[in-house]
Amino acid sequence: MKKLIYFALTIISLGLTTSCTSDDNAMDKGTTTNPDTSELKTKVLEQKVDNYNIVIYSNVKEFYAPSTTPILVEFTDVDNPNNKDFSDAAMSILMHMTMNNGHKMSHSAPMLQLTPVKGSTNKFQGEIMFSMAGMDLEKNYWEITLNAKNKEVKIATKVKTTVKNGIFYDRNNIDSIQGSDRKTLETFNVDGVKHFAAFHLSNKYKVGNNDIAVSLYKKGDNMGMTFPEVDNLIVTIDPRMPDMVNHGVLEGIITLKYNTNTKQYEGKLPLSMTGYWFLNLVIKNAAGEIIAGQPVGKDSDGKETVNGDKFLDLIF
Amino acid sequence: MILKNQYITSILLTLPTLVLAQNNQDTLTNKALEEVVVTHFSKSKNLVDKKPLASVDDYLSKQENITLVRRGAYAWEPMINNMAIERTRQTIDGMQIFHACTDKMDPITSYVEVNNLDGMDITSGSQGSMFGATLGGSIDLRTRKLTFTEQKELKGQVQTGFESINKQKIVGGNFDFTSKKFYASGSIMFRDADNYKAGGNKEIQYSQFRKLNASGIIGYAINTSNSIEAAVIYDKATDIGYPALPMDVSLAEAIITSVKHTYAPTESWIDKWETKLYYNTITHRMDDTNRPIVPIRMDMPGWSDTYGAYSTLSTTIKEKHHVSINANTYYNKSLAEMTMLSSTPGSSNMFAYTWPNVKTNYGGLTIKDHWQIDDKNSLMLSGTLGINFNHVSQKGVDQLGIFLNDNTFKQNKTRTVGNFAINYERAENVWFYGIGVGYGNRAPSVSEGYGYYLFNSGDRYDYIGNPNLKNESSYEGNFFLKYATPAFSTKLSGSIFYLDNYIIGVIDPIYNAMTYGGLGVKKYTNIDYAIQGTLDWNFTYNIDSNWKLSGGLTYSYGEDSNKNTLPFIAPLAYRTSVDYKYNAFRTQLSLKGNAVKNNAAEAYGEVRTPSYAIVDWNANYEFHIKKQSLNVGIGVENILDTYYSTYADWNKIPNPGRNFFVNLSYKL
């Protein structure tokens, strides 16, 4: 009988031995993925107003154009760090230009208004579609007007910033991927009216299906001060990896669907691996006629390597 | 979840064991049958060969029911009844070890060396191994066994060899020390080979390899019936070329460790009770660094770690039932990744997990009863019931979610697996015959369930795993008929398998290929069924005490439910040999070949294979020098320098041409 008990105990202990070896967090053995760029942790601008300190964070060190740039605005009370009850944050943006003849002009750009960051009362997130560069804080610059409330105290300030010219991937030069800025804002004309395709900040990209959203805006009739959303076009994306023989994704061309609630064109992007993804953009009218971009074409070897001139891109 | 599952498994393991053990308590007989002759149970002899320093692959290739898929000069993939690792069970001393390469470039048989091994146990069909469910059969490599001796004994030998075809240099040695309370043994072997040459002196690029293997065993006798043993095998192969594949292996490294307790009482109902705890870890680095022109440079390392334990109890009931009970559990973690190095300097590399950290827990119970009904009749009953649990990382769920646009794919999956077989045998003077039936049920392998873009250079498709696969099951029938007299013996045997829900890659036309030059994507799918079978005939004729003639024929069959031939089904194969021995001198001339294979598995990327036949010769002599001896083995393989490739040569890489070898073993 003693032996029986010993045998039973042995068997049980065998089962337990292996149960102690589950190490669920030991996934990553030396991955080579790029750092995630969707987090808004880089401090770009800082300004003091009265006893408030306002910091603007983004995912880039320096604003560039054209781009759809996410920002996170954080308000703090310098005198009382516990005072975090901020509300009604809103921004407006203006590009100030000085012409060669000294004439001054200004216009706005599309944007996503600030909204509170979930679980926070002093952080607000939005997006600015910088449509052009301006590198002179006296003559050519962008100005972000910020308004908010701290309890009943109104806060208002203007923050000036330069925006550099973005350097983007040139589809005729594969080496230009290196050091390029992400293409998140594309422009095109419909009947002589300037339109914008803005690629919204996604959560962290993963190998798998990713939710993506693109907004279309057009220049309003009032000298570039408003940018109404466009809901009657068709947005298609053909994701490609130019530095990997321009291979595509499983489904081929993806057509985004317009969501009337978010006023964005939305869809799933199946990214089969990490790396540089060129999103070949083709915009069609309601009749299905191409009005901007070209589908990926074949080269002289019959391989689909000729990308169109309108695109968005991402690296992860 | 993992924890919970293992508790369930442990309980499952314990209950039937207790019940069974209770019933046997009064039985005092303990005489185990020394030799168990079972239908189709080909218990291989010790690793004694005319070519003592042949590779483990060479030994395997000479075994009944075994064929090998060859991707180069190293690490051939064993198949039993034309079934690969997913459908068979391959273990080393009962230890589960899982290969770490997504492309099967490191079968576990590549992590041992001939001087680690005493022999191998090979079984056919679902009566399979003691170590878990199987459909096609099992291979258990038996490592060296030592026993305690009254006197202190020290034995050793040094070995060296050379093969002309790839300038392979072999050097090694081993020792055994035994005493009353303690034993120890150690071995080391090193092989270094250049590219081999195919028939007609054509050099096969990227067929080199280098391998170092070392092992150690220590044993201690606690008392007359209890002993404990610790063993370790270390194997490191570097710079391995795979001429059939677009990539090579810079490192394949394994550490295999175990601790074993053996209880072998003299006066007890227990004949033998062995319990083992083990751990092994494999690192496999596949890359294309040595290939001059590739569309995209790739690194594809893989890792496989396994922890496990088993306990086997053998007993004899009423002198007729020879019962073995085995409780077996293991945990495996398989992770492999693919990095495509961007051709653009400074650009980010492309990365994905080809095995997205897949964890497998298995717990099972196997019972075998060899029932010697009377002098003529015997029955073999065997069964396994086990639980297989898989857990895959969230990244794996995300990746494979691209292909499964629904929410049916969960991180955890539990499956019940098992097999059952019954074999009847009868001996009548010089006639022996037997029939058997079996059932087996298996879980999908890591690649079949969770693989991600596994490029198969044979059919040029990328393979995608499918976690929602159903278990594959097999219904098997087998028979043998043997006539044996001291002078002449002959045996006809066969097996047929009906494989329900057969798992194989099926083209998914929606998807593009990802790999450069690929034709598309295949998703692992359960097809309706497949049928496989083998029929084998062999004979041995001892002409006189010096001369012996032997030979045989094997026919294999395999078709899926759409009448497509399955991949890697052997064509008609034949072999014959003449042996001569005189005192310590032995020599053999042999011929082996395959008929033409016209029924290539075209649906699975195979092409026709022409017939071939090759002739080998070897000789062996043992010189005794006092108490020491020198064994000299020489031979010529492929004497006619035939240029040929077989159906099992991946991408039809040609086999080695005429090879002269010399093997020397000096026993101290």
TrEMBL record, chain A:
Could you list this entry's UniProt keywords, alphabetically sorted. Answer: Signal
Q: Which PROSITE patterns match?
A: PROKAR_LIPOPROTEIN (PS51257)
Give the signal peptide, or none.
Answer: 1-22
List the protein's name: YtkA-like
The record lists the organism as Myroides marinus
TrEMBL record, chain B:
| Location in or out of the cell | Cell outer membrane
Asked whether the keyword Disulfide bond is assigned, the reply is no
What is this protein called in UniProt? Iron complex outermembrane recepter protein
Protein family: Belongs to the TonB-dependent receptor family.
Q: Where is the signal peptide?
A: 1-21
Q: Name one GO cellular component term.
A: cell outer membrane
Membrane protein topology class: Multi-pass membrane protein
- Tell me the keywords, alphabetical order: Cell outer membrane, Membrane, Signal, Transmembrane, Transmembrane beta strand, Transport
Q: Which domain of life is it from?
A: Bacteria
Origin organism is Myroides marinus
